[in-house]
Amino acid sequence: MPKLSLVVPVYKVQGYLPECLDSILGQDCTDFEIIAVDDCSPDGSGAILDEYAKRDDRIHVIHLTENVGLGRARNAGLEKATGDYVLFLDSDDTLSDGALSAIRDRIEATGDPEILIFDYARTYWDGRVRPNLRADVLKEEGPDTFSLAERPQLLDLLQIVWNKAYRRDFVTRTGLTFPPGYYEDAPWTFCSLISTERIAVLDRVCVYYRQRREGGNILKTVSRKHFDVFDQYQRVFDYLDAHEELAKWRAPLFRKMVDHYLTVLERPGRLPQDARAEFFHRASADYRARVPKGFTRPGGGRGHKYGMLERDAYTTMVSALAAVKLRQRVKSRTRTALNRSKRGAMGAFYQSQLRLPLDDNLVLFSAYWSRSVSCNPAAIDAELARLAPHMRRVWAVRAENASRVPEGVDVVRVGSRAYWAAVARAKYLVNNVNFPDSVVKREGQIHVQTHHGTPLKTMGLDQQKYPASTDMDFEKLLERCDRWDYSVSANQFSTVIWERVYPCSYTTLETGYPRNDVLVNAGSQEVRAARAALGLADGTKAFLYMPTHREYQPGFTPPLNLSAFARELGPDVTLLVRGHYFYGNSPHVDELRRTGRVVDVSGHARVEELYLAADALITDYSSAMFDYAVLDRPIISYVPDWDVYSAVRGTYFDLLQEPPGAVATTQAELLKLLSSGAYDSPETTKRRDTFRRRFCEFDDGHAAERVVRRVFLGEESLPPIVPFDERHHAPTPAQALELVERA
Questions:
Q1: Residue 290 — pLDDT band, cuts 50, 70, 90?
Q2: Contact criterion met (CB below 8 Å) for 150 and 137
């Protein structure tokens, strides 16, 4: 049997769950089991658990058939636990390094106490770590084990279950279980502490308690569910009534009850306004029914509030809180004045437009900081024209890029009056990056964030770990992301990352990437047309080379000698090069360009057409690999600086270990792969298949339709994802030529 059993209840935490599990599995103490309870989670959490369980037999997954809530999910895990001690860990929190070893060693050093209490720290999205303010009560002073009567100040710790290790036979003997409800930790914590005779402490931070910016915290939720606190304290006092030997704890627990009730009343953002009086009167009734004989109220203002509860003086309480509300209103007015000042900088015209009604049939698109009409927004635009032609579709484009806009596209120049009118009045705003800080999110507006690639490199808040790669203001970043209503995802891998690194209140649309629909639906004519537009003759092998940008380099320098490389590939090969700009002024490159051996496609409007035209893709860390994989054509990873790139920017997986095909780290290796044909072998095909199943999960050719139906037409029932093995994709150039010749 393992020494430790960790019960991890799981519900809607797919963005945080891998980090939680990794923090357990990475411990130097290995004598544990994980009982993970999928509380009928509607997201991908259950699948994540199953994937981890396949890789580590210490993980046991329970899939509940209905959502039962945190307490009863813990009970389900507790029933399956076999360890000497049981720990509970919430699935968005993490263990500190070495935590389980420290817990195990302290348990052994203190002679197997019934409860071991350890420390924790709060962690925040911006990297702050705040210690437990009552860590002083965990000082390892005096006897190794003691009763609660010897250290009653332990009751002043936060009422949580996950900062303790419980001896399993103690839990069984006392019959402790978690009740349903919102505040289920209170009865478990209090009843266990007053029942034990042997407590030990560990003065060490073992758990990092995540303070989620959005969601996942009942304390930030305005709801009548906070009335659940009455049921939980009823359970506490019922336990006291059933155990006369514990009567000495009635007064301390009465004080904890009253303090808890007052906290719910005083903290903004918990009770609905129309429920506050009802809550107060119920709290007052509990006070009078449970006040112990001879109870002495605390002194000062706190004692005054106790008195108001005892007298059921709600009006007096409201008056007492008026000063606090006044200070809050002053702060609110200050914020409003600042916001008005910001809006004033945008111009009076924009302000006037913000006062006009929204146009329910106006959609404003933008892509790549308003540089082009492209990517996912362009694919959504086209599908919207098909399914909702009554809607007016407008694109925001910078003046210097206006000449590149396709004919027939309705454009507003960024910064113009027409632009500000569209930003202010469009019901829908669609972008693959964020709109500028100056854009105000109006009530009723719907923002769709489509993103522009599956991430290999770290994104969003994860970039805080790699400061050399960015000078981003992360607070401003999240303010921009707060405007999102929908986040489009191509695969669950991306979903998990987006929800963690952009922790805002949006809805994820796991539709696939709209821009990749053409890679599934294109036929031989589209492939032939794409090649003809690039001047590629029949029988020519075309390699599309797409190196990505390196933040640590002052400019874009392709890590490939283009002239020498193209020359060595031979006359039947054309190299399509797409970079931040075409690099190379040598006469050899000029000559190769004139002969068509090297084609600069950096300015090509639609990268999807380049994918259709190319026989294979050569790239490094670009998200192009994830999109091109939809075509099921060879992908070669040319990564001569992997060690530097992964260290400076950070990546979500090891590309050398999980590549989409062949890998080369030198130009000589790359040339050998291409010349010999080894880039397209049974082994590389197997790698590509694994890669495609993971990262092309939802790309079945109907992504744009799903987005349009869900966002613009309000449909809840969307076209189902086509099973992976039943999907088609565009023919290869050779297949397209064969089909034409047959015809």
A1: very high
A2: no
Q: Which of 43, 97, 72, 464 is nearest to 216 (CA)?
A: 43
Name the burial class of residue 322, with classes exposed (0-12), middle (13-18) and buried (19+) by CB atoms within 10 angstroms of its CB.
exposed
**Which tokens is 466 given?**
């790699």
What is the DSSP code (8-state) at residue 73?
A: H
Nearest Cα neighbor of 708 from 375, 377, 358 is 377
DSSP 142-173: S-SSB-GGG-GGGGGS-S-STTEEEEHHHHHH
β-pairing, 115-123 with 129-131? antiparallel
Of the pLDDT bands very low, low, confident and very high (cuts 50, 70, 90), residue 217 is low
Beta bridge partners of 663: 637
Q: Which pLDDT belongs to residue 450?
A: 98
Pairing of strands 486-489, 446-449: parallel
Structure tokens at 167: 């001896």
Q: What angle, 0 to 180 degrees and rounded to 10, lies between the N-to-C axes of helices 733-742 and 524-533?
A: 110
Instruction: Check: CB of residue 658 under 8 Å from CB of residue 583.
Output: no
pTM of the entire predicted model: 0.84
SS3 140: coil
For residue 493, count other CB atoms closer than 10 A to its CB.
Answer: 18
Spatial distance between the Cα atoms of 674 and 662, rounded to a whole number of angstroms:
10
Confidence (pLDDT) at 393: 97
Mapped onto helix, strand or coil, the DSSP state of residue 574 is strand
- Quickly tell me which residue has 């903004």 as its tokens: 268
pLDDT tens-digit profile of 148-164? 999 999 999 998 999 99
What is the band of 594 on the pLDDT scale with cuts at 50, 70, 90?
Answer: low
- Residue 651 and residue 194: Cα distance in Å, rounded? 48
Nearest alpha carbon to residue 687 among 651, 658, 663, 724? 658
Q: Which residues contact 398 (CB under 8 A, 6 or more apart)?
A: 369, 370, 371, 413, 414
Q: Is the pLDDT of residue 374 over 50?
A: yes
Q: Report which of 388, 394, 426 is spatially closest to residue 408, judged by C-alpha positions.
A: 394
Amino acid residing at 142: G
Give the Cβ contact number of residue 595 at 10 Å. Answer: 11
- pLDDT at position 339: 58
Residue type present at position 372: S
Q: How far apart are CA 65 and CA 42, in angstroms?
A: 11
Length of the chain: 743
CA distance 705 to 711: 10
Kindly list the distances between the CA atom of residue 134 and the CA atoms of 103, 140, 153, 208, 513, in Å, as whole numbers in the listed order. 19, 14, 9, 15, 49
User: Alpha helix (H) ranges present in 216-269?
Assistant: 228-242, 250-266
Neighbouring C-beta atoms of residue 714, cutoff 10 Å? 7
Helix-helix angle 185-195:228-242, to 10 degrees: 20
Kind of pairing between the strands at 359-366 and 392-397? parallel
Contact 316, 308 (CB under 8 A): yes
Is residue 37 classed exposed, middle or buried when 0-12, 13-18 and 19+ CB atoms within 10 A define those classes?
buried
| 591, amino acid identity | E
The alpha carbon of residue 373 and the mean position of all alpha carbons in its chain are separated, in whole angstroms, by: 28
- Confidence band (pLDDT; 50, 70, 90) for 470? confident
Q: What is the pLDDT of residue 555?
A: 58
- CA distance linking residue 735 with residue 428, whole number of Å: 41
Total Cβ atoms within 10 A of residue 83: 20
b vs e for 381-411, b when ≥16 Cβ sit within 10 Å of the residue's Cβ?
Answer: bebbeeeeeebebbbbbeeebeeeeeeeeeb
36 contacts 481 by C-beta, under 8 angstroms: no
Task: Say if strands 94-95 and 199-210 run parallel, antiparallel, or are unpaired.
Answer: antiparallel
Tokens encoding 33: 């089991």
Task: Give CA–CA dist 362/88, Å, rounded.
Answer: 50
Are 481 and 434 in contact by the 8 Å Cβ rule? The answer is yes
